[in-house]
Amino acid sequence: MLNLYNLTAHEAARLLRQREISAIELTQSCLERIYAVDDQVKAYITLIPEVALEAAAEADRRRAAGEDLLLLGIPIAVKDVLCTQGITTTCASRMLEDFVPSYNATVVSLLQEAGVVMLGKTNMDEFAMGSSTENSAFFATHNPWDLERIPGGSSGGSAAAVAAQETILAIGTDTGGSIRLPAALCGITGLKPTYGRVSRFGLVAFASSLDQVGPMTKDVRDAALLLSAIAKYDPQDSTSVNIPAQDYTAALQEEIKGLRIGVPKEYFVAGLEAGTESAIRQALQHLESLGAELIEVSLPHTQYALPAYYLIATAEASANLARYDGVKYGYSYPAAKDLWDAYRRTREAGFGQEVKRRIMLGTYTLSAGYYDAYYLQAQKARTLIKGDFDAAFDQVDVIAAPTSPTAAFKLGERVDDPIHMYLMDIFTLSLNLAGMCGITVPCGFSQGLPVGIQFLGKPFDEAGILRTAYAYQQSTDWHLRRAGI
Predict the structure, then answer these.
(1) Which residue among the candidates 22, 29, 42, 79 is catalytic per the annotation?
(2) How confident is the model at residue 2 (pLDDT cuts 50, 70, 90)?
(3) Which pLDDT belongs to residue 107?
(4) Which of 111, 203, 241, 352 is within CB 3.0–4.6 Å of 196 for a Cys-Cys bond?
């Protein structure tokens, strides 16, 4: 008998349209899968089965009334950093443990309009600060391919939920690689849209010039379907770009003959795990066999991406997280002596260690006497990094590179070594600094664990990276492999 939770969104949509299954049956299948395995994976912070089944019933009624939306009745998991009206939004932090928003993020509203069924809110690194989903205030998420290993971060809960078949679709956010890294480590597809393509209204801010919402799915076609639903102009977000919405599935084609694919020499360096490099090289050879032209390109300022990111992102985090003072909403220390003591003790108890570390670094970066030496220099480096990509895209159509320098490491292995942890993002940060789009897809295994290759595109060329990734997936079967849990 077919386990419905194993379906992709486009497979499920076809069965729903043909009335072979109902949205209630599909949702129930996913919920039963969650009940069976999530005590091991720990992908969800909040599960809303009653709400989900009501939404599924409504989707069935809408379809019976003649509505034919592609995602109508498809279950989805949402990273717990997006506001959901009437449903707890914690950002995996004690600071917001009991916060129930009075409104929806625009992305959540768009998903509801599309008729998807929200199963719950997924675990993450606290306030999206981390690369392993070990920084959650509640619990660590486990990689479905090996429960002793990390799923990547910060959208590790969403990635693990998709990889463990605990949902059909998921939403994540990507500030420095937080969609692409966990997608690669969990063997799924993850797409980081161009900055400004998807609304950030109702997204709890980490670094406002870098954050972006995007799809995490079982394959590229599902990513195109989900992006089509959420990539719409939003006047409530001042950074939302007013360009026409489009159907990204129209870009999917298997023919990439003559496509110019850039291979950046700076991404094949010491520290790239041998098994990961081997899988990436084989993927590049396969793309060449499909008729693509591989062209070596140089991104000479790549070495500055990590320090520039951790200055800019922490500076913005320091400003954004100043609002959590125990006064208006969120956690408030109950026994403070005075206002200043309340501020201090609320933040001391409410924030985890990694968040405190980044707030302190960001505050230092913005302090008098250091702003020019650090923050301003980081912004100049950011401009140079963007210039590198612009020059490379004068020669090529897309850029292909490793998503992560290694496969998933063991839980606890890097908790006390923040620099080593930050290096997991070495191949993903530049894209966010440059404000471009990227997608990662599975391309092999290293020591039995998934490896991902990412395709980077020019600003607002999501169609180009989707086309490349789709052609690769249609001629390989890595994305069809499933975690054994």
Answers:
(1) 79
(2) confident
(3) 98
(4) 241
pLDDT range class, residue 1, cuts 50, 70, 90: low
Residue 193 pairs in a beta bridge with none
Cα-Cα end-to-end distance for the chain: 18
The predicted-structure confidence for 95-151, as pLDDT tens digits, reads as follows 999 999 999 999 999 999 999 999 999 999 999 999 999 999 999 999 999 999 999
225, with CB counted inside 10 A (0-12, 13-18, 19+), is buried
Secondary structure letter of residue 75 according to DSSP: E
**Residue 309's pLDDT is what?**
97
Q: What are phi and psi of 67, to 5 degrees?
A: -70, 145
Closest by CA position to 124, among listed 74, 80, 183, 184: 80
Q: Structure tokens of 217?
A: 């799915």
Looking up tokens 């078949």, which residue turns up? 165
Residue pLDDT, tens place only, 228-263: 999 999 999 999 999 998 999 999 999 999 999 999
Task: Count other C-beta atoms under 10 Å from residue 91's C-beta.
Answer: 29
Given a cut of 90, whether residue 269 has pLDDT beyond it is no
Instruction: Give me 339's structure tokens.
Output: 């206002």
Active site residue 178: yes
Tokens of 310: 């951790």
Torsional class of 99: left (φ above 0), alpha (ψ -120 to 50), beta (otherwise): beta
User: Of the listed 131, 132, 154, 240, which one is catalytic?
Assistant: 154
CA atoms within 13 A on the CB side of 83: 16
Of the listed 93, 178, 199, 430, which one is catalytic? 178
For the question of residue 328 being annotated catalytic, the response is: no
CA angle 185, 294, 255 (to 5 degrees): 80
* Cα–Cα distance, 11 to 105 (Å, whole number): 28
Phi/psi of residue 126, nearest 5 degrees: -50, 125
Cα dihedral: 81, 319, 351, 325 (round 10): -100
